[in-house]
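Input sequence (187 aa), recorded before submission:
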Amino acid sequence: MVGHIKLAGLIAIFLVVFFPSLTLAQDVNFGVSPAEVRINDLPPGEATEFELTIRNKDEIAHVFTFTTFQPPEEERREGRTEFPDDSWISFSSPEIEVPANSAANVTVTVTIPQEQKWAGEHWETWLGVAAESSDLLAVRLYVRLLVSTTPAAEARSNAGLVAGIIAGIVLLGCGSYYYFRRKTKSE
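Predicted structure, token format:
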């Protein structure tokens, strides 16, 4: 039994020493800012843009990829629902290479379709940024994206306007009638 334990220990040490990529994630030192983006009062049918800055703090260049992620309900902010469609979010590039010890920006566009059912909503989704890696484990940082659309325009009663237009047409008609009647009598 002791021999089996020693053999298992030797195999574990062998794996850690000779195959570190199987046991540890690639140590990519990077950051993303801002950590949270709030978009308020975005009307349905319109788009807005913002920039994410990726800082590569490593000594070598890395390629970073961008994705969207729907957080679990318990992770979302109170009063926020799941973002309806990830295709409404686009990145200026799906990936970007950032040189060593430098930063680069990527533009994110959020477009809401022009349907009134999207008015007055409050959504949350996360934008994932990860360095491409051949390791089994990779570090991914998330930016919280909070989107609120403008409330639906309430249908106002235009009864006063309609009544005014009708009264104007009636008065114009009566005035025209009496004017042309007088003109024909005088002739």
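Checked by second reader. Residues 159-186 form the longest helix (28 residues).
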